[in-house]
Write a structure and sequence with these properties.
Strand content: 15-25%
Largest sheet: 5 strands, mixed
Number of helices: 5
Shape: globular
Number of strands: 5
Distance between the termini: 30 Å
Structural class: alpha/beta
Order of helices and strands: HEHEHEHEHE
Radius of gyration: 16 Å
Length: 160
């Protein structure tokens, strides 16, 4: 491995970590303004009703979810819909980290189902737009990735 490859890969790791932090900041800011939709079914309803208000689709999946065929089909359909409607999409691993960021339960001792965080939509209606530096950072990230023909980037959220 050359020095350029080492420095380049380290720089890319730092960039992805920064983007992951920006994503977390954006989700918290959007949630505080009630601009977050959680869950595959709720997201599908919103995308059907008002796709123009959606600025970001976060598709979260961990290794244990890879065998869930029904979930894979839903996620594929959501991704296709978002692509058709020019909605930025990011795939992330780290559902537990998302749950902590959004202060959602990942299950409890009473046997209640955990909140579905496999699809998270961020809306930004033109009437009262969300003003958040993290949204601009995420937008720049997507523009850079499209220049490299990477339409659906993948982030690993750090658990900690």
């Amino acid at each position: 491995m050359t020095l350029e490859e080492v420095v380049g890969s380290n720089s890319n790791e730092n960039r992805m970590e920064t983007v992951g932090q920006a994503l977390e900041e954006l989700l918290v800011a959007a949630q505080q303004k009630d601009r977050v939709t959680l869950g595959v079914h709720e997201s599908a309803k919103l995308l059907t009703a008002d796709p123009d208000s959606v600025v970001l689709c976060v598709l979260a999946m961990d290794e244990e979810d890879e065998d869930d065929v029904a979930l894979q089909i839903h996620v594929t359909l959501l991704q296709a819909f978002c692509c058709e409607n020019d909605i930025n999409i990011v795939r992330v691993s780290g559902v537990r980290r998302l749950a902590r960021v959004l202060e959602q339960d990942t299950g409890d001792s009473d046997g209640n189902e955990p909140r579905d965080l496999h699809c998270i939509l961020v809306t930004n209606p033109p009437v009262q737009p969300l003003r958040c530096p993290a949204l601009e950072n995420i937008g720049s990230f997507f523009e850079e990735n499209r220049c490299c023909s990477l339409w659906v980037p993948h982030l690993e959220l750090q658990d900690g």
